[in-house]
Design a protein that fits this description.
single chain; six-stranded mixed beta sheet
Length: 382
């Protein structure tokens, strides 16, 4: 029964998608009609249909990277085409009230400029990372402040690979953090392009005095295989595991719920943790922020949301998640959700720029002549 529901759901979504593609084509056909002969219009229509369904067919045929990734570029233009289509339709109706007309030539010019502008903007934000600095204070003992680089959602693959890893290494070398934490989605569904382009070499250059750590995300398919591959770089995977970062801080890394159905409940995982240390929980998907705010953690580091990645999808993530992007202090705990260093699908970002968080954690500095009461520390960023 469940399989039939999935099939019916897929058919329904596919049908709606094809209708939207057809409506988009009708709009484009109207705009280009005065300038393009009928045979060329037919060729453009066929090309749009093929491109619109390329990635779907590639998924069904299991072609994998890079073919699926090339097909995914379309969805950026599909979404933005729908946006500008709605804007033009509303403008046309409003102008009609004043007995004015929005010509096909003007509509085509506006559409072209909008898509070119969004393309340039999306590429810039996707490939030009910004560094965000945030200092937080915890009510626990720390011998000295600890600086952690937090990144998420690298999605290493066809469009995000060695040049971006080299850029990340330069940022980390410049900032000189004590530790680096990757909050999931290291790979882009599989490791085909990771291995083909030998990204291991550049990833292994990511270093910090207290270590580099990662958890798995929902796009880290075949998580156990990825864990084994990541270990070759010197990065330490945390797979429902805890590790002592220093005398004051413990990292707790969760399995991702989408790829590891057997993961422990967070409360169960914390039973093995010394709560007299600062607890930094690394959980790829920030869908349990309210629950985790009731647990004995100090900081949570998450990613996953990409803040929607493409406008206006950020309005959806803002409704779905308590914290879809940025920093919030809830019930005395520090929560971070990153929009990601990389991206998924189309190589564009129009809701949040590629980002690297530099989090400095400050705590109570207790005299060496006094016995510390606690040493729990936690951090996260987005």
């Amino acid at each position: 029964m469940n399989n039939w529901k999935l099939i019916a759901g897929f058919i329904g979504v596919f049908a709606v998608y094809e209708i939207l593609v057809f409506l988009m084509w009708l709009g484009l056909k109207w705009m280009i009609s005065p300038f393009v002969p009928p045979k060329v219009k037919l060729a453009i229509g066929i090309a749009i249909f093929i491109i619109a369904n390329f990635s779907i067919v590639a998924y069904m045929l299991r072609l994998g990277a890079p073919w699926v990734n090339y097909g995914n570029i379309w969805y950026f233009y599909f979404l933005n085409g729908a946006v500008i289509g709605v804007i033009l339709l509303v403008a046309k109706l409003l102008l009609k009230i004043f007995k004015l007309n929005l010509s096909q030539g003007i509509s085509l010019s506006i559409t072209t400029l909008y898509l070119l502008g969004m393309t340039a903007f999306g590429l810039f934000w996707a490939y030009s990372p910004t560094v965000i600095n945030k200092t937080i204070k915890v009510d626990k003992h720390l011998d000295k402040p600890v600086k952690i680089v937090m990144i998420s959602d690298l999605h290493l693959g066809t469009f995000f690979s060695n040049p971006q890893l080299e850029k990340l290494n330069k940022i980390v070398d410049k900032e000189k953090p004590d530790a680096v934490v990757i909050a999931g989605d290291l790979m882009d569904d599989d490791m085909v392009m990771y291995k083909k382009r030998n990204m291991q070499e550049n990833l292994s250059k990511l270093k910090a005095p207290l270590g580099v750590y990662t958890t798995m995300g929902n796009h880290d398919h075949d998580a156990l295989e990825i864990v084994d591959e990541v270990k070759k770089t010197g990065i330490i995977p945390l797979f429902d595991e805890t590790i002592t970062l220093n005398n004051d801080i413990t990292l707790v890394g969760r399995k991702d719920k989408s790829v590891s159905r057997d993961r422990l409940d967070t409360a169960e995982l914390l039973k093995s943790v010394d709560l007299n240390k600062t607890i930094v929980l690394v959980d790829h998907q920030p869908d349990a922020v309210d629950y985790h705010a009731t647990l004995p953690i100090d900081v949570q580091l998450s990613g996953h949301t990409h803040r929607g990645q493409l406008w206006p999808l950020n309005f959806i993530t803002d409704v779905v998640y308590t914290l879809d992007h940025g920093y919030a202090k809830i019930n005395g705990k520090h929560f971070f959700t990153s929009a990601g260093y990389g991206f998924w699908g189309p190589p564009f970002k129009t809701t949040a720029r590629s980002e690297v968080w530099m989090i400095t954690i400050e705590g109570k500095i207790i005299s060496k002549y006094k016995k510390p009461n606690s040493s729990i520390h936690k951090k996260s960023i987005c």
